Amino acid sequence: MKSIDTTVLIAISALSTSAIGQNQPISAAPDHCVAYQDDAAARLACYDEWATRHLTRQAAAASDGVPDPKRQASKPGQVDTNAPQPYLITMEAPARHDCKSSTFSEISRFWELEAGSDCGTFVIRGYKPISLSVIGSDSVNTQPESPVADHTASTAQPFNTTETRIQLSVRTKIAQGLLTQGQPLRRDSLWFGYSQQSNWQLFSGDLSRPFRTTDHEPELIYVYPTDVALPGGWRLRYGGLSLNHQSNGQALPLSRSWNRTILMAGLENGSQFQLHGKFWQRMSEDSNDDDNPDISDLVGRAEFTGIWNINKGNALGLTLRHSLRATVNGSMKLEWLHKLGANGQESSPSSLRLHTQLFSGYGDSMIDYNRRRTVLSVGLSLVDW
Length: 385
Known about the structure:
Elements: H1 2-21, H2 40-64, H3 69-72, H4 106-111, E1 125-126, E2 130-137, E3 162-176, E4 189-200, E5 211-229, E6 235-247, E7 257-269, E8 273-282, H5 295-299, E9 302-311, E10 314-322, E11 330-339, E12 352-361, E13 373-382
Antiparallel strand pairs: 1-3, 2-3, 2-13, 3-4, 4-5, 5-6, 6-7, 7-8, 8-9, 9-10, 10-11, 11-12, 12-13
Helix pairs in contact: 1-2
């Protein structure tokens, strides 16, 4: 332990001496490393990473013979905010570990990829948006059917094309540090999530306002943190694997379900842009038990989501699903989220959003997996609370 401390101090001292010799003061010691006061290994790794990166930068500047204007702008005693931060740390670490701290990037906070953005296990967190919305569609599935025998409703129901949609979604981390025990600044994690979406025929008084369909989606998710630099300023932040079950919990003839193994990854470019990709393989089922044998060809085998944080109060999202076959099916979902609460201040930590969404394609719900629909929804959502 003492030898490591000594190495770090020597590196910092060398940096300071070199900077003075060139009349270019460098940043002060990395105060954000003090955040790891309860984790000695993480703190030392933070100092070590800081020293290594500064040495590399100093050597590059010396070899070029060109002074660094950003360093010249620094004053003695000031922290160089332009200096590279420790591995996976996007900004200064907070004084304590906090998965809600804006110090870390949105992806890091969401999946708790770093030591500083870790909030521990068995904490209930939001997953997909928890929403209450009114939806209007170009059609409604009054008599659901499937190509399998005994999977077509016997009679049609006069459902309304206007419905109320309720979505609940939560998750909790059940384990961490499974493969990153030797990397004190990283946190891989294993999560259990559950999502539920219901379409409520609130405006069908003649039918006693039934729930037309309710989908259940439990899943087990493993997430591994990465920090791979890509062209254009993009960084690959995580990769993962999910075991996913989705069904509507109905008996025949309305039963619909499938199980999938999902590979996923996420990228970010600063605080404004994110890209998330998923590729999945449906788990095989006996033909006698398969409620929807053509679901992959219709709903899709891959999903790509792009997010643009226009500012701190507004975000746009686009999700595309594709069948990855010559016959192109899938869906498109365009959504806008506007922050509400705290008098509309952009800096507010409010999780409440005005949520507007336009969907077109297959798979708006499990019962509608083989029905192409266009749906507009407007409502309120809680995101990552």
